Amino acid sequence: MNALFIIAGALLAGPAIDKEFAGMDANHDGKVSAVEHAAGAKSMFDTMDGNRDGKVTATEMSAAHKAITGQDTKPGDMSAADKIKAVDNNGDGVLTAQEHAAGAAAMFAKMDANKDGMLSKEEMAAGHAAMLKK
Ligand SMILES: [Ca+2]
Ligand SMILES: [Ca+2]
Ligand SMILES: [Ca+2]
Hints:
Elements: H1 2-8, H2 16-24, E1 32-33, H3 34-48, E2 55-56, H4 58-69, H5 80-87, E3 95-96, H6 97-111, E4 118-119, H7 121-133
Antiparallel strand pairs: 1-4, 2-3
Helix pairs in contact: 1-5, 1-6, 1-7, 3-6, 4-5
The chain binds calcium ion (CA) (3 copies).
């Protein structure tokens, strides 16, 4: 399940949490709702889908990672193929918007520690920290 964090969020990590949170909090109420989170995940998917065919391949995900972080995947990092595998329901090696959305929804539920249906910045940061510890 930790791979879900990597797909939707961990192109960004650490100090980038602030930026990610602000980007998702569309109505600026200091919380990210499930709807806001889903919209953020969708926009991440669109960013990764380089050729706009509605599917994200391992190659596209690697390219997006490099574009966003300015770095190649480091040795020891999960490969893009492995990240895809974690939410690739039909096992075809590419990620559809539907598979990505389902993964993002599961991730939201996991990060919402106090189950109020909203993500605070602390919850998002803790979720990412938990992911990075693995
Ligand atoms: Ca909000
Ligand atoms: Ca594509
Ligand atoms: Ca919450």
